[in-house]
């Protein structure tokens, strides 16, 4: 499953670091952070997507609390 999420990252370096960190989470097939469009695209297996998504949200909020202020 693939899902796009609004992500308020406005720095290319921050986006790259966040993307690398998210790709290291178990169950994440791919994660792309685009600071131009301010979108996080997450791919994970359908049967594990919700638990992987929860871990991604927790990680993003820890690293960049303002990035997912709408979640």
Question: How would you portray this structure in words?
Answer:
- This protein is α+β, with helices and mostly antiparallel strands.
- It has one domain: Alpha-Beta Plaits (2-Layer Sandwich), CATH 3.30.70.
- It has 2 helices and 3 strands.
- It has a 3-stranded antiparallel β-sheet.
- The longest helix has 15 residues.
- It is globular, with a radius of gyration of 11 Å.
- The mean pLDDT is about 95.
CATH topology, which one?
Alpha-Beta Plaits
Number of helices: 2
Number of E strands: 3
Please state how the strands of the largest beta sheet are arranged side by side: 1-3-2
- Class per helix and strand makeup: alpha+beta
Roughly how many Å is the radius of gyration?
11 Å
What summary fits the major beta sheet?
3 strands, antiparallel
Counting structural domains, the number is: 1
Low-confidence stretches: none
Cα separation of the termini: 19 Å
Q: If classified by CATH, what would the architecture be?
A: 2-Layer Sandwich
Q: Choose one word for the global shape.
A: globular
Please state the average pLDDT score.
93
Summarize it.
This protein is of the alpha+beta class and 71 residues long. The protein contains 2 helices and 3 strands; from the N terminus they run E-H-E-E-H.
């Amino acid at each position: 499953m693939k899902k796009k999420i609004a992500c308020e990252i406005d720095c290319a370096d921050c986006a790259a670091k966040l993307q690398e960190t998210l790709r290291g989470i178990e169950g994440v097939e791919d994660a792309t952070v685009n600071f131009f469009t301010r979108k996080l695209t997450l791919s994970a297996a359908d049967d594990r997507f919700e638990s992987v998504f929860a871990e991604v949200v927790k990680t993003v909020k820890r690293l960049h609390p303002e990035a997912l202020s709408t979640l």
